[in-house]
Design a protein that fits this description.
mainly alpha; two-stranded antiparallel sheet; elongated; 173 residues
Length: 173
């Protein structure tokens, strides 16, 4: 993972952990970010670590990073789909590496379900729609394509197995 992905992940977790802001909660949020005094009488301003240019981490994530994270997730799902297509397209007609190709599909479906869960959780805690959409779209596509294309690949494996059986029967006669 590169640095920007780690920062985006931390911001996401901070956004999901932060309570939704309301008119009454805005005053409480301002009080929570006020400078505090440590045990030695030193003043430490926690607002510097949780805010940049006057915006909270949640605001920064909601306004900038969904596009970056969504683009990265979409690209990752696309690359993964290309890998599955290349490996499955070469191996299924020959009847090879069936377990590996099925494993790739299962991984895609599980990752898609995890992304859907994160997206639904983001909606549940009251984040903006764009934040939830960042995870719902790639997760939904991963699950949908995995579930729809796995039977097609399994059918190609069955055809390859039937061709092998027919060839053995032909050789035996």
């Amino acid at each position: 993972m590169n640095r920007s992905m780690i920062v985006a992940l931390v911001m996401l977790l901070a956004a999901l952990a932060a309570p939704p802001t309301t008119a009454a909660g805005a005053d409480a949020g301002a009080a929570a970010s006020a400078p505090t005094t440590s045990g030695r009488g030193e003043s430490s301003d926690r607002s510097d670590s949780s805010k940049a240019n006057g915006a909270s981490l949640r605001d920064m994530y909601d306004s900038v990073h969904p596009g970056i994270v969504g683009g990265a997730l979409g690209a990752g799902i696309g690359i993964w789909g290309g890998l599955i297509g290349a490996v499955g397209g070469m191996c299924a007609p020959r009847g090879r590496a069936k377990g590996f190709v099925i494993l790739l599909f299962v991984i895609q479906i599980v990752v898609g379900l995890m992304l859907l869960t994160i997206g639904i959780g983001a909606l549940a805690v009251g984040t903006q729609w764009m934040t939830a959409y960042t995870f719902l779209m790639p997760g939904g596509l991963a699950v949908l394509l995995g579930v729809l294309l796995l039977p097609v690949v399994l059918a190609r494996y069955r055809q390859a197995e039937q061709r092998r059986i027919d060839a053995e029967a032909f050789r035996a006669t």
